[in-house]
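Summary of Year 1 activities. Much of the first year was spent building the evaluation harness for sequence design. The harness presents a backbone, in tokenized form, and records the residue chosen at every position. We chose the following record to illustrate the format because it has been used consistently in internal testing since the harness was completed.
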């Protein structure tokens, strides 16, 4: 499981705490340098909270609960603090694990449904491994083998259309066929040079239950538009 920042952790921990009073916020007065500096620290950290809350899994965070948990702990008011730091850390980990598992299960079901429907469409081929593809343009060159390096243009996206990687607008990419995800390794060996294919790669042939980076979530089916430009023969 990926680590989370202290700010996001505090947000999750605070969920369920009673609504905080905003009186102190409304009555804040900046009468001296310390007041102004304190308020400025609040602004800086508030901006950090706001940005990081956008990546919080599950339902939207309860901002009032966040404020309540933050203020009571910051002031050291243990009589009003509903969680110890140790309990808070445990709650955070359990919350994240449960939220991420729910999202992962949802993506797995959505991906399986998509592939089942997609394979019935005209022009879509499905290999024994479950890789799906459609021939956009069939080239006339030779097909690469597992030991070759290839030159390609490509665009990779998720099923909801989020582009996570692309060579378009830049130089073609060159890499070894055995240096990429299994779905690419298999798919590239189907393509003659000069071809353009669209591949739909099941999660087990891509990044599986771990996902990758910001956009490729666990159990994601990936779509790649690939143009095979050339082959550098391997030994």
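For this record, the design step produced the sequence shown next.
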């Amino acid at each position: 499981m990926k680590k989370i920042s202290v700010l996001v952790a505090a947000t999750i921990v605070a969920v369920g705490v009673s609504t905080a009073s905003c009186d102190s916020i409304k009555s804040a007065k900046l009468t001296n340098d310390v007041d102004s500096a304190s308020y400025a620290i609040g602004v800086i950290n508030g901006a950090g909270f706001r940005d990081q809350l956008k990546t919080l899994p599950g339902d939207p965070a309860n901002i009032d609960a966040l404020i309540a948990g933050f203020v009571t702990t910051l002031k050291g008011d243990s009589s009003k603090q509903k969680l110890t730091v140790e309990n808070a850390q445990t709650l955070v980990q359990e919350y994240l694990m449960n939220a991420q598992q729910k999202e992962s299960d949802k993506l797995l079901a959505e991906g399986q449904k998509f592939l089942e429907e997609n394979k019935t469409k005209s022009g879509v081929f499905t290999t024994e491994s479950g890789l799906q593809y459609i021939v956009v343009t069939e080239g006339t060159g030779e097909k690469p083998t597992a030991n070759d390096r290839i030159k390609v243009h490509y665009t990779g996206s998720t099923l909801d259309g989020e582009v996570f990687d692309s060579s378009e607008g830049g130089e073609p990419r060159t890499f070894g066929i055995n240096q990429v995800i299994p779905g690419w390794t298999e798919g590239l060996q189907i393509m003659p040079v000069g071809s353009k294919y669209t591949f739909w790669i099941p999660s087990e042939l891509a990044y599986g239950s771990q996902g990758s980076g910001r956009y490729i979530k666990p159990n994601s089916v990936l779509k790649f538009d690939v143009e095979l430009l050339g082959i550098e023969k391997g030994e």
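Residues 43 and 181 are 44 Å apart (CA to CA). Quantitative recovery figures across the full test set are reported in Table 2.
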